[in-house]
Amino acid sequence: MIIKELKKIVFSKIIIALLISLCIVNVLYETRAEIETKEQIAAQDKLQKNKIDNYGKYLIKIKEDGTNMQSIVLFSKNNKFQLSNAKRTVKAYEAVKNVKPVYGNYRVIEKITEFGLTDIILFVMVVQIALILVSQEIKKGMLDLLKSCRNGRLNLIVNKMVALSITSAIAIIIVYGIKFVQLYIKYGLSGMNVPIQSVRGFYEFALPMQIWQYMIIYFMVKWIAVCIIGIVVIGIISLVKNETVTYGIILISTAVSLLITNSIEWNMSTAVFKMLSPVTLLNTKSFMAKYININILQHPFELFKWTLIIMAVYLSASIVFTMYSFTTKRVIKFPHLRIAKGQKNIGIKSKGILSYEKKKIFAVNKVAFFVIILVVIQGYFLSNDNTKMDYHDKCYANYISKVYGVPDKKSQEYLDTEQKRYDEIQAGYDELTEKYINGEVDNQVYVMASQEYNAQMMPYDDFQKVQEKNDYLKELKEKQNIEGWFTNDLVFGYIFGDVTIYDKDISFLILFIIAVFCVVPIFTYDRQKEMQKLLDTTYYGRSKLIRNKYLNAILISVVLWCIETIPWLVILLKAYKPNGFAAPAQSLSQLQHFPLHISILAALILIYLCKCMGIILLGLLVVGISDFFPDYIKNVVISMGIIVMPVVLYMLGVEFMNKIMFIPVVNMSDYFTKATVVEWINLAIIIVAVFIMNFKNLKNYTKRKIL
Known about the structure:
The chain is mainly α. About 70% of the residues lie in helices and about 0% in strands. The chain contains 32 helices and four strands. A two-stranded antiparallel ribbon has the order 1-2. The chain is flat, with a radius of gyration of 31 Å. Mean pLDDT is about 80; it is low at about 335-350.
C-alpha cells in the first residue's frame, strides 16, 4: 500500500509541474541575490579570522563572565534566572574547550542554512503532497468505502504518513541539493571536516561537531519539522473533508505563527511562544546556531534541547491526531450562511452550474492553494524590505519642504542663499587648505577644520538634487508652459523609475507562474473531464456560464495582481510620505513626457489601472492558450513557454527578451516614460493575439455568432 500511495504522489502532474516551476524560481532568485563587494567580503573575513584565532580566549571570557555574573546576581532581586543561566552557560561551553575552529571559505554552509525561499518552497510542496494523499479519495467519494475495508483505516493512514515522510525527504534532497550545487559553483567550499564553529554565524554553538555532522542533524531536524506539518495537514483534511476549508486553516495558522516568530525575540519573557511556533521549527538555524537559554518562569531552558523535545511531542501528537481524524466517523462541517427575507438561515442551497463553477475553480482546481503560495512568498519578500529613509533622503525631503509648491521668488531666494552659504564654506576650506600646504596652519587645526567641513558639506549633494529639480521646473515652464511643483518625489523613483527595493523580475516571474496555474483550468477542466458537451445542453451552458468563466479569469488575475503589487505601493507611500499629489504629473522628471495634463494622483491611478489591465491581458492570453488542448498540463507547459520562458531567458542574460516578454506589459510604467518602438509593437501583438484566440475560444464554446 505504501507503493500505491507513493505512486499517487510521484505521478501527480501538478506536483511535478509545481516543483519544477518553484525550483526554477529559487535558482534564479539565488543567482540574482546580492553579492557582497570585495571590501565587505574582506571585512567579514578579517573579523571571522580574528574570532577563530581568539576562540580560546572567547571561551575563557565566557567562563569569567559567568563567574562574575554569579557574583553580581547574588546581591540583586529576581536573580534566579540570571544565576542559573550563568552556571549553565559556563557548563555548556566546557564541551567545546578542545574545539579548534579552522579559517576558510564556508559561505555555502552559511547560505544554505539561512531561512528563505527554499524553505517556503519546501513548505508548499509538503502541504500539497499531504493534500493529494487524502483529497483524491474524498473527491471520488471512495474514502468511506476504503475505511470499510480490512486495512482501510489504521493501516491505510499509517501508509499515507510513511509515504509523506519518504516524499518529504526526497523533496528536501531535491530543493536543497539544487541549492547546494548552485552555491558551491558560486562560492566554493574549503571543506566540511572542520568544526561547525568555523562557519560564520555558528561561532557560539556549544556542541563539538564537524560541519558534515552538523548538516546531517540539521536536515534530519528539518525533515521532522516538515513531516509534522504534513501529518497535521492530513489530519485536518481528514477531519473537515473540505479542501478549501483546509487551505483557510493553513493560511490562518501560518499567519499567526509568522506573527509570533517575527515579533518575539529569544531574550523576551514570551520566548516560549516563539519556541512553540511551527514556523520556528521550519527555520532550523534559529535554534541551532548558538547556545541560548530562554526564560520560562525564571527558569532557564536550553533552546536547542527543548526545541527537539517539543518537536518529539508535536510529532507524537500529530500522529495521534491524524490517526483519530482519519479513523473516526465524525466530520466537522462548515455550513453555508445565507440571508433570506431579512433573517439568517443556516443551510446549503444549490445554485446550479454557476455555483459549481466557483467551487470548481477555488477548490477542485486549487486556486485557493496557489493564492496561499503567492501570499506566503510575498510575505517573505515584504519581511526583507528596506524602505527606511537614510540621512540623504531626509536631507532632500527637508530641503523640499522649504521650497514646496510652485517655484516663486521666495523659493529662488532661499536656494540662492543656501548655494551662497555652501560656496562660502567651500571657499573658506580651500583657503585653509592652501595655508596648510604653505605651512601656515598646523596639522591638528587642519584635521579639525576638515572634519567640520565634511559635516557641513554632507547635505550638499542632496541640495544639488533640489537645484537640478529647480532647473527642470524652469525648463518645463519654458518648453511645455506647465507650472510644475517642488514635491517630495523620492517614492516616485521606485514607482516609475529603475530604483527598486525588491527584485521586480523575480516577483513578476512568480506572479506569472501562479497566474498560469490558476487560469488554465477554468476552461481546460471541463474539456479534460469531457463535461463540455453536457454543459452545452444546459440552460446557461452556452451563454451565462461562458461569461462567468471569463469574469472568473479576470477576477483571479486582478486578485493575484493586487497581492503582488498593492502591498509594495502601501509600504513605499508609508515610508517616504510623498506630497504634492495635486501637482501636474509633469512635475516629476520621470513623467516629463506624460501625454495628459493631469495631476500626479490622477496619473498614479491611471498608471496602476493600466498595470491592472496588463495582468488582465495576461489572464485572457492564458484563457486563449487553454483552448489548445483538453489536457491541463499541456496547456500549462504551452503557457509557461509563451509567458514565463522569455522572463527566465532574460534573467539568464538574454537582454533582448526584456523588450518582448510580458513584464513591460504588466509593469506598464515604461509606456508612460521610456517605451521603445519594439515594446509598443510587443503590446500590439499581445492585444491582437488575445483578441484572436479568445474570439476563437468563444466561437468554439458558443457555436453561434458572437454579437
